[in-house]
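Q: what sequence does this backbone want?
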């Protein structure tokens, strides 16, 4: 599973002096952001949110063995979506705990002393601009894209964000990327074709993820509690690469099944008005 080349490294120093920064204090990401500041921001958010996942609620992690030998970059996590921020924050906790060698747990939070900084997540620009808290979360690695199908709570039709693919490609060359293919927190919503294009264009190692409990525990944004003592499950499936000969539609269909977003038969009958 290890790529043939090392992860792309960026520094504020000239290339011929970058080797002097052996502690990585002057290292940056592809978008010019300091990894030191990013690591600090992830740590602060992690300490602030830790009790939400371990005290108020409990986090159950499955399939952690699929993360233990992943390469440092070129990994795309595809998951169903239940809240704007709690889903992503839980992934960052887990990614950092794996970096420290933890097995299926985020207890104790020692990993927050040096969290994983080479992590990114795809988010709607509109969401990340709505208030101070989202703007702070954006510093943790948000790859903001303009949604072509929805804006300000309404369905719209506009040109696809051409910069999105470039952003994701750069992030994949540097680390791990989390994406929610449905682009909405509504269950069983159709997947966006952009996911298929993303996989076709970059051929990343894909890790399907299925989460549950977040919608019960938190509000839509994932910032306020709805129901305490909820079990939050995060299930990682075996990583895979998709056949490059597959069409976008075929890839989207496979991903939909992997993240278990087929509409259940009983719900389908109810939607059709059948008994």
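A:
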């Amino acid at each position: 599973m290890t790529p043939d080349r090392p992860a792309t490294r960026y520094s504020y120093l000239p290339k011929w002096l970058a080797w002097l920064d052996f502690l990585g204090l002057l290292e940056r990401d592809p978008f010019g952001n300091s990894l030191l500041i990013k690591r600090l921001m992830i740590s602060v958010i992690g300490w602030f949110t830790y009790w939400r996942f371990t005290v108020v609620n409990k986090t159950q992690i499955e399939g952690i063995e699929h993360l233990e030998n992943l390469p440092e970059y070129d990994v795309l996590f595809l998951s169903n979506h239940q809240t704007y921020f709690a889903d992503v924050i839980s992934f960052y906790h887990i990614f950092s705990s794996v970096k420290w060698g933890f097995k299926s747990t985020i207890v104790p939070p020692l990993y927050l002393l040096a969290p994983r900084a080479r992590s990114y997540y795809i988010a709607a620009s509109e969401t990340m601009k709505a208030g101070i808290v989202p703007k702070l979360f954006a510093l943790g690695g948000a790859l903001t894209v303009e949604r072509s199908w929805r804006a300000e709570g309404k369905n719209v039709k506009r040109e696809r964000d051409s910069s999105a693919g470039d952003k994701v490609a750069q992030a994949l060359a540097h680390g791990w990327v989390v994406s929610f293919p449905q682009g909405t927190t509504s269950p069983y919503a159709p997947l966006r074709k952009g996911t298929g294009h993303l996989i076709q264009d970059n051929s990343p190692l894909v890790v399907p993820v299925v989460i549950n409990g977040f919608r019960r525990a938190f509000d839509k944004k994932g910032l306020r509690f709805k129901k305490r003592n909820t079990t939050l499950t995060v299930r990682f499936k075996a990583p895979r690469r998709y056949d490059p000969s597959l069409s976008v539609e075929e890839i989207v269909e496979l991903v939909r099944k992997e993240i278990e977003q087929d509409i259940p038969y009983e719900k389908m009958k109810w939607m059709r008005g059948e008994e």
